[in-house]
Amino acid sequence: MFKNVTIYRIAPGWDATLESMEAALDAARFVPCSASQDKSVGWAEPRGEEHGPLVESVNGQRILKLVIETKAVPGAVVKEKAQEAADHIEATTGRKPGKKETKELREDALQALLPQAFPRRGSVWVWFDMKNGLLVTDAGSQGKNDEVVTALVRAFDGLALTLLQTAMTPQTAMTQWLATTEPENDWPEGFNVERECELKSADEEKSAVKFTRHHLLTDEVRKHLTEGKLPTRLALSWEGRIGFTLTESMQLKKLAFLEGVFDDRPNDDESGFDTDVALATGELSQLIPALIGALGGEIEPGAALPGAEPASAPAKPKQEAVTAVGDGDAPF
Q: Quick one: how far is CA 194 from the chain centroid?
């Protein structure tokens, strides 16, 4: 169910009932793109049953599903059709369209081509852990997370969300875990560093090195750290039950429940959804506080990190020098 994890803190004071959540989402049910529409976002039934509930509660955990459908027309095709219209105007009137008219011709071309475009549909799982005041999404990118948060805030009056913030940044913790020569003393309890990481420098060159299926507690890795490269991704496992890649922005990617976790899952489809939700949320309900503890505990939203300087987003480089070490893409 969950392939990625991004964790948000629900601001105190919001405590919607199942019934009120259902009513709020019903007004924003997913509807496929119309012929001339390039994007549609809405809520769908988590179980996949038509006209079913939009909020499912399993063992007290509330599960939602946001569907995002887009239709895209290649820019070159739009430009070509708009040029044909511009050529026709020039041939029949003797004048070339100006900038404003050219823009309108491209917009008209896009609208004419959209009905022929094939829609792409994706979905994002959303988990409300009301007991612990957390919201978790399985969006794989920040853009999709922004879509989810926007849709939630529009649907639910009074809901405020902030990204979970810990006393130690994931990058600082990952650096310490990779730099150690005594993992039995320096790794947090229950966690193991696995065989994948990415290190990037903060200088103008933005050089990077990737290790895949590679032992990481080596002088080679430590040398990169002393040269100023910092970890942006690190493969970890927890208690031999969950594997994931931790990112510098505290997203968990490539989430995988390891051998044995789902062994008792029934094969019948009718109870499969409830079992998957119960197992996934049950495991994550233990992993998340353990990870927060490994990062020094949670701090209040908006509070400055201990010893941290205000940071600005670095400019995206035109090109990065990347070195890959290893023989595959899998984190474990």
A: 21
